[in-house]
């Protein structure tokens, strides 16, 4: 999906309580029920009810420090819920394949690790111990790098890439898991305008191909142009709805007027 | 040169092969300390092992009375296994506490490791001072006595370092993923605590036997300095592992030859040689960078 065209979702819209059609149980990938997340026992977010379905493109937005990343980490299981539950669909009884893209700044540049080695991490659950990486995985690696526009970079040191290129490589690593869903934490943070546009275009394209996406992003315009639904995180709660309803000028002004500057 | 090697193989075969194995394998384990910015764990953990050995000396008279059926105090050294038990026990306890605190508390890991090192160093001296025989072994314990590696010491090195090497090869990808991006590891279904414990178990076992045979100074030096030398020239992670291991092996090999030829103490010679390699590699990288810039 490009910024100009937003095709209708293949599956039912999902933001529970947003006034949109309720998601069917079959299409739900992850469901949060009255969930609370926080640190050291103190909740940052509580009373979270949210469902993400197949085909969704959900933007998580809100002021700095509101808990956008906390919500994403809670969904993935990096934070255990203080109350409530997080239910992932288990197709065929298998655990969900999560394509997680962290903030680039979280990765230490001291590792002399190549692009190929970073992307292959996504295939680790499939690789046999004591075996070298097989031809199939090598081909899949090359195809994944091509998909994110980074063909031929597999032997380049990850630390030598620009911020935008690193972000693409982390997206490639997430795709290498053959994910059911892509979850990204501020993928455009610290990258230049051109790289930001190309990353968002890439995400739109992946969603068009049927991959559900949950995106934490501080750029409201970017989310509005690319995502289909939005979750506004503010004062320990979330509101959800379509991007047009949630991120219209009046809606944003109204929420910002309630206190707290948007990032 | 051949004459020196022949003499070494005749007189110090156990020590020679033991130090080569420690030299080749220790840097592989040290790689993860370096990458996780926990190099000081490499000095703190051997010190805990040393404290364990010192504690063993404290208990030795009672042990002799109870089990060895000797006149109490007739033997002032104790068996290799006796000391290895206490070295491992103290090492595992220290690592478990450090891992637990790392997950639970909000302080810095450097602070915890530094406090642990201070405690272990103080405890080592206090245990040795309080024991009947410890003071006569304090120099050996602090500097190591590589030249006196016994057959059982060599066996312990071969067994534990081989095990460490096999497990490292088997689980290198998991260790790397956890070290590089723990959140991604969790999202891929890995349990970081389990992998951390396995890594620390490996490192702890290797360090314990290393401290008993080659001493804490050499163990720390070989765990940390070869990976530091390999880091600037590593073009991928596999090269990083291989260069680290190679530099450690070369340090142990030429350190032994130099120490024998010059009649220097082996442990400090190894560490100084490792440092010379580190300096040479960094100089080489600088000079090569200058040439590249000049060409551009």
Main attributes of the structure:
heterodimer, A: 263 residues, alpha/beta, six-stranded mixed sheet, three-stranded antiparallel sheet, 8 helices, 9 strands, disordered N terminus, B: 296 residues, mainly alpha, globular
Give a written overview of the molecule.
- The complex is a heterodimer of chains A (263) and B (296).
- With 263 residues, chain A is an alpha/beta fold.
- Chain A has helices at residues 68-76, 115-120, 135-147, 163-176, 193-208, 220-226, 243-246, 249-257; strands at 28-39, 42-53, 57-61, 83-88, 98-101, 181-185, 213-216, 229-234, 237-242.
- In chain A, the strands form two sheets. A six-stranded mixed β-sheet of chain A has the order 5-6-7-3-8-9, sandwiched between helices. In chain A, strands 2-1-4 form a three-stranded antiparallel β-sheet, with helices on one face.
- The longest helix of chain A has 16 residues, at 193-208.
- With 296 residues, chain B is mainly α.
- Chain B is 82% helix and 0% strand.
- Chain B has twelve helices and no strands.
- The longest helix of chain B is centred in the middle third of the chain and has 30 residues, at 151-180.
- Chain B is globular and about 75 Å long.
- The N and C termini of chain B lie far apart (43 Å).
- At the A-B interface, helix 2 of A face helix 7, helix 8 and helix 11 of B.
What order do the helices and strands come in, and which of them pair?
The complex is a heterodimer of chains A (263) and B (296).
Chain A: E1 28-39, E2 42-53, E3 57-61, H1 68-76, E4 83-88, E5 98-101, H2 115-120, H3 135-147, H4 163-176, E6 181-185, H5 193-208, E7 213-216, H6 220-226, E8 229-234, E9 237-242, H7 243-246, H8 249-257
Parallel strand pairs in A: 3-7, 3-8, 5-6, 6-7
Antiparallel strand pairs in A: 1-2, 1-4, 8-9
Chain B: H1 2-11, H2 13-35, H3 41-68, H4 80-104, H5 109-130, H6 138-143, H7 151-180, H8 182-187, H9 192-213, H10 216-230, H11 237-262, H12 266-295
């Amino acid at each position: 999906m490009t910024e100009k065209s937003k095709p209708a979702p293949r599956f039912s819209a999902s933001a529970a309580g947003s006034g949109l059609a309720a998601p069917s149980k079959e299409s739900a990938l992850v469901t949060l029920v009255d969930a609370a997340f926080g640190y050291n026992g103190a909740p940052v977010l509580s009373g979270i009810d949210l469902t993400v379905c197949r085909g969704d493109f959900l933007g998580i937005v809100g002021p700095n420090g509101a808990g956008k990343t906390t919500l994403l980490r809670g969904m993935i299981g990096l934070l255990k819920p203080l109350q409530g539950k997080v239910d992932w669909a288990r197709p065929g009884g298998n655990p969900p394949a999560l394509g997680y893209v962290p903030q680039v700044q979280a990765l230490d540049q001291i590792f002399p690790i190549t692009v190929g080695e970073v992307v292959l991490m996504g295939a680790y659950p499939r690789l046999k111990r004591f075996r070298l990486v097989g031809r199939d995985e090598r081909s899949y690696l090359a195809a994944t790098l091509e998909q994110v526009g980074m063909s031929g970079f597999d032997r380049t040191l990850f630390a030598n890439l620009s911020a935008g290129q690193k972000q693409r490589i982390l997206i490639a690593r997430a795709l290498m898991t053959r994910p059911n869903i892509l979850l990204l934490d501020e993928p455009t943070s610290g990258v230049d305008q051109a790289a930001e546009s190309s990353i968002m275009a890439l995400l739109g394209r992946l969603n068009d191909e049927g991959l559900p996406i949950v995106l934490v992003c501080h750029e409201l315009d970017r989310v509005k142009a690319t995502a289909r639904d939005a979750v506004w995180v503010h004062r320990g709660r979330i509101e959800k709805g379509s991007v047009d309803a949630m991120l219209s000028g009046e809606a944003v002004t109204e929420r910002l007027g309630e206190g707290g500057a948007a990032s | 040169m051949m004459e020196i090697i022949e003499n070494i193989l005749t007189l110090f075969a156990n020590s020679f092969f033991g130090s080569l194995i420690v030299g080749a394998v220790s840097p592989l384990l040290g790689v993860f300390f370096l990458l996780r910015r926990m190099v000081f764990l490499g000095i703190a953990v051997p010190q805990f092992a040393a404290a364990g050995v010192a504690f063993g000396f404290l208990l030795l008279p009672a042990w002799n009375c109870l089990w060895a059926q000797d006149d109490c105090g007739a033997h002032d050294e104790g068996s290799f296994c006796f000391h290895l038990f206490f070295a491992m026990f103290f090492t595992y306890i220290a690592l478990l506490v450090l891992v637990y605190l790392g997950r639970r508390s909000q302080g810095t890991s450097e602070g915890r490791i530094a406090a642990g090192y201070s405690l272990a160093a103080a405890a080592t001296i206090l245990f040795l001072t309080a024991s009947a025989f410890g003071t006569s072994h304090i120099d050996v314990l602090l500097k190591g006595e590589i030249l006196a590696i016994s057959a059982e010491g060599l066996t312990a090195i071969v067994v534990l370092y081989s095990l460490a090497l096999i497990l490292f090869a088997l689980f290198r990808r998991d260790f790397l993923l956890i070290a590089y991006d723990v959140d991604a590891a969790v999202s891929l279904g890995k349990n970081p605590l389990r992998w951390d414990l396995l890594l620390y178990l490996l490192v702890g076992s290797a360090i314990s036997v290393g401290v008993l045979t080659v001493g804490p100074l050499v163990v720390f030096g070989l765990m940390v300095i070869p990976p530091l030398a390999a880091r600037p020239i590593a073009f991928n992670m596999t090269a990083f592992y291989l260069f680290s291991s190679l530099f450690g092996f070369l340090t142990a090999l030429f350190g032994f030859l130099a120490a024998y030829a010059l009649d220097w103490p082996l442990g400090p010679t190894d560490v100084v040689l490792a440092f010379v390699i580190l300096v040479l590699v960094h100089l080489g990288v600088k000079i090569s960078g200058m040439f590249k810039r000049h060409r551009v």
